[in-house]
């Protein structure tokens, strides 16, 4: 019998459903396993040893006390799977369509800023790994690689550009035009950063981008006044090797934008971005999900920014069911935050998500071994998800629903949804 999990034979054909072909004679192929790293939590440990303190702290921490960061992860532990048996799972198709592309599994890599902090190949390594595994990548506005280069590295697999809509819209207008030219399918506006969350380690470390790196999408795009103000505020006690040069478009200065509002912002963005899709990332309530539909969003991502913005905000998995109910299939609902195992993806889908995004685990893969490390991260998650499907008696993603879950109550009592 062949085994229905990710094999090297199917990764080079990311657009094909992974339905166990071509057959392998000996069942599970262990030759690809990294014996030092058989889970995402092992990947996290390996990665930490390879990042400098500033980077490790920046990647891993949450805002304030990290309550929401932890809640995102723990929310998955409050559900258990109800597996069904004797259903012939010899052929499993874990693929779904996202941005018009058949993704090999129902998750993508979430946009995360400044990936060259983790590895010199940065976003290119992530894009190449995603392309090899047929997985969609979201690119941060604050990437250390230009969006055109990432697009090229992604090959046939589409990308979405995450947007921080700056108060000075000229930068954003340029960026959107470039994304369109380069062939991005969607822009994802992050809406949970009206102000920056307070990340204590980032503050204590006086986070700076090392001088050999740049925020590539804006490298030559600072306005004169921005260059001037950057040169006056700089030159102060920076550690060796840290930048004092212009342009100063940094996530601290330009990321947060308190002026976003529904009507004008959405109208402007939909006009500028067309024909790319416009998604909103950072929705946590059914009220805002309804407004997103009303204002023409093509999709939403239920997210609390990986616990990096409002500490004390509810876990994304807990926010999901009410949002799914109110959206009622009018637009796709995605979710991110706290996904550390393929079975977490299964649980999110069972609660109604159409697709998941994974943040830190890919960064850990990148820090561990560049492209190979990101591929390892993807392979672990894909394999775990497919194994979870097989062990639950499911052969297609669309079969996954609330019948497959039960909830652990406060008393420890387990009940049907
Ligand atoms: C280091 C780091 C940088 C991030 N940068 C961005 C960003 O530039 N834009 C954005 O919308 N979200 C950003 N995020 C949030 C992720 O897109 C995603 O919402 C979050 O990481 C999901 O949680 P997880 O890390 O638990 O999977 C970042 C997250 C991390 C950890
Ligand atoms: C405005 C924040 C930009 C980077 C980011 O999203 C993060 O560090 O979480």
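-> sequence recovered:
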């Amino acid at each position: 019998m062949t085994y229905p999990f990710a094999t090297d034979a199917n990764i080079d054909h990311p657009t094909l459903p992974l339905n166990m072909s071509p057959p392998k004679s000996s069942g599970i192929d262990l030759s690809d396993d990294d014996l030092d790293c058989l889970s995402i939590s092992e990947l996290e440990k390996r990665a930490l040893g390879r990042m400098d303190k500033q980077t490790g702290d920046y990647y891993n921490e949450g805002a304030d006390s990290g309550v929401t960061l932890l809640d995102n992860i723990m929310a998955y532990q409050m559900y258990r799977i109800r597996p069904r048996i004797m259903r012939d799972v010899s052929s499993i198709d874990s693929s779904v369509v996202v941005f018009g592309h058949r993704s090999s599994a129902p998750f993508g890599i979430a946009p995360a800023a400044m990936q060259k902090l983790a590895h010199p190949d940065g976003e290119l390594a992530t894009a190449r790994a995603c392309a090899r595994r047929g997985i969609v990548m979201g690119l941060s506005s604050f990437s250390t690689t230009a969006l055109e280069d990432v697009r090229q590295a992604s090959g046939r697999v589409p990308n979405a550009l995450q947007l921080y809509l700056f108060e000075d819209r000229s930068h954003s207008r340029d960026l959107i035009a470039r994304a369109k030219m380069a062939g991005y399918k969607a822009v994802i506006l992050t809406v949970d950063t009206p102000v920056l969350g307070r990340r204590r380690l980032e503050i204590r470390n006086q986070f700076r981008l090392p001088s050999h790196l740049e925020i590539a999408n804006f490298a030559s795009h600072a306005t004169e006044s921005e260059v001037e103000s950057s040169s006056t505020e700089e030159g102060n006690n920076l550690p060796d090797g840290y930048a004092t040069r212009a342009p100063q478009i940094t996530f601290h200065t330009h990321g947060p934008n308190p002026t976003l509002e529904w009507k004008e912002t959405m109208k402007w963005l939909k006009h500028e971005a067309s024909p790319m899709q416009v998604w909103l990332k950072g929705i946590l309530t059914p009220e805002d999900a309804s407004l997103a539909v009303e204002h023409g969003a093509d999709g939403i991502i239920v997210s609390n920014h990986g616990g990096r913005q409002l500490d004390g905000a509810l876990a994304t998995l807990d926010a999901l069911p009410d949002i799914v109910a109110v959206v009622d299939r009018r637009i796709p609902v995605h979710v991110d935050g706290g996904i550390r195992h393929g079975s977490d993806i299964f649980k999110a889908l069972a609660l109604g998500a159409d697709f998941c995004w994974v943040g830190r685990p890919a960064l850990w893969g990148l820090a561990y071994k560049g492209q190979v490390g990101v591929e390892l991260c993807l392979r672990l998650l894909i394999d775990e998800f497919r194994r979870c499907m097989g062990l639950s008696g499911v052969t297609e993603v669309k079969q996954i629903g609330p019948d497959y879950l039960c909830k652990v109550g406060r008393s420890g009592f387990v009940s049907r949804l």
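The pocket of flavin mononucleotide (ligand 1) is lined by residues 58-59, 72, 110-113, 140, 142, 162, 190, 281, 303, 305-306, 308, 336-339, 358-360, 363 (CB under 6 Å).
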